[in-house]
Specification:
heterodimer, A: mainly beta, 7-stranded mixed sheet, 4-stranded antiparallel sheet, 0% helix, B: mainly beta, 6-stranded mixed sheet, 5-stranded antiparallel sheet, 11 strands
């Protein structure tokens, strides 16, 4: 099956620093990647949708200047949390799809646990 | 507002019995529903789906039922096995208008006891 990786799996940083999370599709070309955020005991909240070579589409309430998304190639998307604060601590999960109209073809990465001190 | 709701945060079932996980939604535009299974520190993995034109879809031990009038779906696992212990998320999409965007419920943690 399709494999999606995320790096790092866990990161601890100081308040005010920026953190970059990578999402890679290892064995397929992902025309679309999605970024989700999950709080403890809560649902996965879609943050943004990114298509290769174009600007990401952010969901309502998500600050695009705070969460910078770059989908530079068909196998790589990055999420940068800029000037991170403790309230940004969360579990960030990406998914990748080569057929974005078909929900079943979203393959999820293992997630990145971010802790901001 | 929570468009997809899983009101039971946890469920405990004996091995061999049936597990029933429930999910409710509010948006009548949703036309595709999926169930995902998630282990700790891992991403969700796709389990089973159902289109709004159907009311039942079966795959081995897993069956999903959709009641459009009640805006309710459920996942049945029978017989339940200890390896089924995980968090189960239902998700919905408005595939026609929103493409692949998924709206997730809060998840139900299933524990299957030997």
């Amino acid at each position: 099956g399709a494999v999606v990786s995320q790096h790092p799996s866990r990161v601890i940083c100081k308040s005010g620093t920026s953190v970059k999370i990578e999402c890679r599709s290892l064995d397929f070309q992902a025309t679309t990647m999605f970024w989700y955020r999950q709080f403890p005991k809560k649902s996965l909240m879609l943050m943004a949708t990114s298509n290769e070579g174009s600007k990401a589409t952010y969901e309502q309430g998500v600050e695009k200047d705070k969460f910078l998304i770059n989908h530079a190639s068909l196998t790589l998307s990055t999420l940068t949390v800029t000037s991170a604060h403790p309230e940004d601590s969360s579990f960030y999960i990406c998914s990748a799809s080569d057929s974005p109209g078909l929900s079943e073809t979203q393959y999820f990465g293992p997630g990145t646990r971010l802790l901001v001190l | 507002d929570q468009q997809v709701k899983q009101n039971s945060p946890s469920l405990s079932v004996q091995e061999g019995r049936i597990s029933i996980l429930n999910c409710d939604y509010t948006n009548s535009m949703f036309d595709y529903f999926l169930w995902y299974k998630k282990y700790p520190a891992e991403g969700p993995t796709f389990l089973i789906s159902i289109s709004s034109i159907k009311d039942k879809n079966e795959d081995g031990r897993f069956t999903v039922f959709l009641n459009k009038s009640a805006k309710h779906l459920s996942l049945h696992i029978v017989p339940s096995q200890p390896g089924d212990s995980a968090v189960y998320f239902c998700a919905a999409s408005d595939a026609y208008n929103q493409g692949g965007k998924l709206i997730f419920g809060q998840g139900t943690e299933l524990s299957v006891k030997p």
